Amino acid sequence: MESQSEIRVRYAESDQMGVAYHANYLVWCEVGRTDLIRKLGMTYAEMERRGVMLAVADAKLRYHASARYDDVVRIVTRLTGVRSRMVTFEYDLRRVDDRGPDPARLASASTTLVSIDREGRPTAIPPEMREMLARAVTPGFDA
Amino acid sequence: MESQSEIRVRYAESDQMGVAYHANYLVWCEVGRTDLIRKLGMTYAEMERRGVMLAVADAKLRYHASARYDDVVRIVTRLTGVRSRMVTFEYDLRRVDDRGPDPARLASASTTLVSIDREGRPTAIPPEMREMLARAVTPGFDA
Amino acid sequence: MESQSEIRVRYAESDQMGVAYHANYLVWCEVGRTDLIRKLGMTYAEMERRGVMLAVADAKLRYHASARYDDVVRIVTRLTGVRSRMVTFEYDLRRVDDRGPDPARLASASTTLVSIDREGRPTAIPPEMREMLARAVTPGFDA
Amino acid sequence: MESQSEIRVRYAESDQMGVAYHANYLVWCEVGRTDLIRKLGMTYAEMERRGVMLAVADAKLRYHASARYDDVVRIVTRLTGVRSRMVTFEYDLRRVDDRGPDPARLASASTTLVSIDREGRPTAIPPEMREMLARAVTPGFDA
Q1: Residue C125 · residue C134 · CB < 8 Å
Q2: What is the pLDDT of residues D55-111, one digit of tens each?
Q3: Contact, A33 vs A59, CB < 8 A?
Q4: Engineered SS bond to D72: which of B11, B15, D41, D96, CB 3.0-4.6 Å?
């Protein structure tokens, strides 16, 4: 499964190079992840209330082009792997504009998250949640 | 009492105008507040572990000049008022540089914080903490 | 004139108190401001390309209730004053939820911005831009 | 060559999991990078004024343990590679505390930056700058 999110680059996110500061892409990936989980029929906020937290253990980002203030960025998120305590997501970020059907690729990213409990200890994803995630697993963008 | 903190402006904090984005000044004020509380002999982290949270209820900022990437900013923080559930801080932010004894004033600010419990309900500051804060009360910068 | 914007609170914007960190409200006000200017028929990005920058000179915020991760926040923005070099905006921020027609007020804010040129010097707002802004002036929320 | 930087985790950087939000580590790496370049005898701010910008093209992060509000984090930065248009840095982030000589490893990271001109086009690093960087090249942390 994949989900699509759109954000508009905020002035706060620009830097003095005139582009969106690179760390913000991780925040946008998190927006994509939140939307994908919502599309699965739950919310990450609710997962946390039930005591399941997903902490980022690994992140990889490749920046292809710059997003600028006021650009609309489309984040396509895919859930590409689930294991007992881990979930992997991949992201494809593109600038959405009026110039054509094939928006410029801004960045590609992947993150691996580990399931932890309220004390921060690694813990198995509850079975029914894991099954729901497993049904949504999709090949990644490069696959 | 007053305390002094110094931060160096991060690239992440710059915006496309080439200056530090205005919302960061509130973050720097919080750095000043944390340092002032530490100077009083406790830490805000410890206050929270004891169940006393200080939530910002009111903030006022005046921007006089721009901080830029890599500038060192000195934050002078004063505790200017304590009531049963409220604490007021004032801040004077200046650029520290090599050019002289009187650094340029960047901004002045004040924040009022309300004491809340873990459920977010307003609650009295514990007496011994309130006394410690009360002893540190100082006239504000304009007084 | 007033404009409406909606943002969803990001995990990145939460803090360890479990609520949206207070400095983010200034970022959300900026989102509201950007949208109001767009509704006027121009964009702030375009204003900057023409050499007119609006720098925040003064900000006031009152926090009434807490926004939380994944909440949808509606920002109503009004342009309440225009002078030769200054523009004032007011903001009303409310939580949007399913529980009723009158969303909880989260915060109210106002900011005054000064028109500056590329070198950071105060400069008059160009006449045609000032007229367009002047036609949009509206009484503030408390008026 | 390597440089050491220290930052104290800000409340603004915490999230509702009670730990420093993962995207902030990229900001701390940038603090480390700025300090390493300063130690080389120039400043990145000055490099930009001369028209050489370093844009992040690739970032990898592994998170080992969580930093928390008010923790002091030590960032050790190494310049591990220089090519005509690219520079690679590695980072080792540890929590500094009173409990012993071997601080807990929080994260390890690497970033590759591309030299661009004011228009955002890839451009060779000026020879004298490249030589200075080349003399500082050091094996990475895993080497």
Answers
A1: no
A2: 999 999 999 999 999 999 999 999 999 999 999 999 999 999 756 667 889 999 999
A3: no
A4: D96
